[in-house]
Design a protein that fits this description.
- The complex is a heterotrimer of chains A (66), B (320) and C (321).
- By secondary structure, chain A is mainly α.
- Chain A has 3 helices and no strands.
- Chain A has a domain at 16-61.
- Chain A has helices spanning 10-14, 17-36, 41-61.
- In chain A, helix 2 packs antiparallel against helix 3.
- Chain B has 2 domains: 15-109 and 276-294, no CATH class; 112-271, MetI-like fold, CATH 1.10.3720.
- Chain B has 16 helices and 5 strands.
- Classes of the chains: A mainly alpha (66), B mainly alpha (320), C mainly alpha (321).
- Chains B and C meet through helix 1, helix 2, helix 7, strand 3 and helix 8 of B and strand 1, helix 2, helix 4, helix 5 and helix 6 of C.
- Strand 3 (143-144) of chain B pairs antiparallel with strand 1 of chain C, so a sheet runs across the interface.
Chain lengths: 66, 320, 321
């Protein structure tokens, strides 16, 4: 039913910006939390990669059409 | 702030009652007084004698003296009482103050050159940043530039970077170019930091000037540049002035770059003030005197800017 | 007005040449396209020279073992070693946690006090404009000067702060040192930062409160909604975009905090107030481990850059209102 409200086909739905931007921002935010959390040094170790992925991802998806 | 006051109508039911206003007012005034106390203490310390400044318990009432200011501007040497007795009588009021402590003035301190550095670097970088910023902001406001939003984000992001991290490569680059500890190097660096604020703020101000004025001028046979000079700039004057003051405040207050990249020649006031040393540690009256002189222009600017502060701290996004 | 979240279509597709938005036939002099480039180019060139070129250079150095105090050593490329070093180093991790605690507490306090003050100032008592200007003063000062004069105020014996506290609580003034004790020092930097930056939050909250149109409250009044309900269902939700803006900006600023804390405690006692910027400064400008500190700088860069993306999104949300 929800598909009815989206006028265009499947592809354009996948490239909707807001959804991807939210995902990228979550990744950035999560990475920052991993960087500074006091519980696990393994999470700390992977934090930079996470933030980097999120930031690059955000730069790309912010150019998707609305 | 006055505009907002006019907006809410007198008979509105949302209007606060006189009693709640009085309570709100006294709470805010209480906060303002508490927040002001540290600054008042510093201004007062500038007029204390060295012994009053380090008295235990701290003195609220004291006999004011200009010792702090004299110490700030001079370098003194301690002499024996015999030596001072043999000198001709003191010729100036500051000689009198200094000799009370068995000292004679040996020369001027470094504070004036540091102050001059602050002024030159502050005004130099402000002028350049506002000049470049006005041009770029005009272009971003009036023309369609490919990837404008990416460029604007890039411009803003350069300002948000941690200064210590930026200073590392700048230090290496300036060492190669012989720009470490030079005024030119600091002016260029502060211009780069300020230009981002200038572009964003000025774009906001220029966006608000209706295009119709320029377009009418263009139809009348002005060139673009003439229209910019004779139509847009006169209307943007307030915005340009506000932006300039923001840039000036940044360069005036900046510490991290100054302490990491300058050591003498081009040192500005912020890294200099904490290291005004007297006999046995910091000379607090002199430090306080320097702080007072350093802060007075900022207080004036704050009063001048109060209507534009909100814009300045949000890069032009919030306009009221 | 074009904003970042709504880039115009021409710019998006890259087909958009520089053109006047409304075609203008009889313009003399330089073409608009030339002017646009002439005007933007100097700014971009300056930023490329002062920001981007050094940044690229730093990325290169972060893969090396360069140490300026031992520059006789041959420059070796060591791949990602600096990064793996830092990201496995407990000390750096602890410094980041110290930074996070500082950010968390200072921003929380600033938000609560700042929002409270804004609610009070919105009542427009007599002279609110004057007192607001007074309150704003601390945030206009140089952080270095602030850090420096608070060291005087916080001196256990000669400073007024301890005596003020002892007046309120009866604890002897010289029995504690705000900057010298492991338990107190982290709170001291929070205190001074809150003193300095609460006005910033207050100003933004005030703008948020003033953006709520009166008629919404009037409608709520008609519906006999209590003041408490009005706050939770009107005031707070409608100011959220502004609050986000304040939180994000203060968090980014305090994450990279250097100047004020460097002068107030310079990281001490021990390393209880050593924020990550101070660690970076020590690695880069005291131990001269340039390769290593470049890598740490890049980690901080990317973190701030990521957060800046979110901040600009918040900015645009506010701009659209």
């Amino acid at each position: 039913m929800s598909d009815v409200s989206i006028p265009k086909g499947g592809l354009s739905r996948w490239f909707r910006r807001s959804r991807w931007e939210t995902a990228a921002m979550t990744l950035i935010g999560g990475g920052i939390v991993m960087l500074v959390q006091p519980w696990s040094i393994d999470l700390y170790g992977y934090s930079f990669v996470t933030i980097l992925t999120g930031t690059l991802g955000f730069t790309i998806v912010s150019h998707f059409p609305e | 702030m006055t505009a907002a006051a006019a907006k809410s109508t007198a008979h509105s039911i949302v209007e606060a009652s006189p009693r709640s206003r009085a309570v709100a007012g006294s709470l805010v005034i209480l906060y303002a007084v508490i927040t002001l106390l540290p600054m008042v203490w510093i201004v007062a310390t500038a007029f204390k004698s060295q012994s009053d400044a380090i008295a235990y318990p701290p003195k609220v009432l004291f006999e004011p003296t200009l010792e702090g200011y004299v110490n700030l501007f001079t370098v003194r040497t301690r002499q024996t009482a015999d030596f001072i007795a043999k000198l001709p009588p003191p010729s100036t009021w500051y000689d009198v103050i200094v000799r009370k402590h068995d000292m004679v003035i040996a020369g001027p301190s470094k504070v004036v050159p540091r102050f001059v550095n602050s002024l030159i670097i502050g005004f130099g970088s402000t002028f350049l940043a506002v000049f470049l910023g006005t041009l770029a902001a005009y272009a971003f406001s009036r023309f369609r530039i490919p990837l404008a939003d990416d460029l604007l984000f890039f411009i803003l992001s350069t300002r948000m970077m941690p200064p210590v991290a930026v200073a590392i490569p700048i230090y290496l680059m300036y060492r190669q170019l012989n720009l470490t500890d030079t005024r030119l190097g600091m002016i260029l660096l502060y211009t780069a930091v300020n230009v981002s604020l200038a572009v964003w703020l000025l774009k906001g101000f220029i966006d608000e000037i209706p295009r119709e004025y320029e377009e009418a001028a263009l139809v009348d046979g002005y060139t673009r540049l003439q229209a910019l000079r004779k139509v847009v700039l006169p209307q943007a004057v307030t915005g340009i002035a506000a932006t300039a003051i923001f840039c000036l405040i940044f360069s005036w207050n900046e510490y991290a770059f100054a302490v990491l990249l300058t050591s003498g020649e081009a040192q500005t006031m912020p890294p200099f003030i904490p290291f005004i040393i007297g006999e046995g540690g910091q000379d607090w009256p002199a430090v306080a005197a320097a702080t007072t002189l350093f802060v007075v222009p900022i207080v004036l600017f704050t009063v001048l800017l109060r209507k534009h502060l909100l814009r300045g701290i949000t890069f032009g996004a919030v306009r009221k | 007005m074009s904003t970042i979240i709504h880039p115009d279509h021409a710019a998006m597709t890259g087909a958009g040449e520089v053109a006047l938005s409304q075609p203008m036939k009889h313009v003399r002099g330089l073409s608009d396209r030339t002017i646009a480039w002439l005007f933007v180019a100097p700014t971009i060139a300056l930023l490329l020279a002062i920001n981007i070129f050094p940044l690229v250079w730093m990325i290169r150095l972060s893969f090396t073992n360069l140490n300026l105090s031992m520059s006789y050593l041959p420059l070796r490329f060591i791949g990602l070693d600096n990064f793996t070093d830092i990201l496995g180093d407990e000390d750096v991790w602890f410094r980041l946690q110290t930074t996070a605690r500082f950010v968390l507490w200072s921003v929380a306090l600033e938000m609560v006090i700042g929002f409270g003050l804004a609610l009070l100032i919105k009542r427009q008592f007599r002279g609110h404009s004057f007192w607001t200007t007074i309150i704003l003063l601390p945030m206009m000062l140089s952080p270095a000067v602030v850090g420096n004069f608070w060291t005087l105020l916080l001196q256990p014996q000669i400073g007024p702060f301890n005596h003020f506290i002892s007046l309120l609580t009866g604890v002897p003034a010289s029995s504690f040192s705000m900057t010298g004790e492991v338990v107190l020092a982290p709170w001291t930097i929070v205190l001074v930062d809150t003193w300095m930056w609460t006005p910033y939050v207050m100003l933004i909250c005030l703008a948020g409160l003033r953006s709520i149109p009166d008629y919404i409250y009037e409608a709520a009044e008609v519906d006999r909604a209590s003041a408490w309900r009005q706050f939770w269902s009107i005031t707070l939700p409608m100011t959220v975009p502004f609050l986000m803006l304040a939180v994000l900006f203060r968090a980014i600023e305090n994450f990279k905090m250097f100047d004020m804390v460097n002068l107030l405690t310079s990281g001490g006692p021990g390393s209880t107030t050593e924020l990550v910027s101070i660690t970076l400064k020590r690695a880069a400008f005291e131990k001269w481990r340039t390769g290593y500190s470049s890598a740490l700088a890049i980690i901080l860069f990317v973190t701030v850059f990521g957060a800046a993306n979110i901040y600009v999104k918040a900015l645009n949300k506010v701009k659209q209102r």
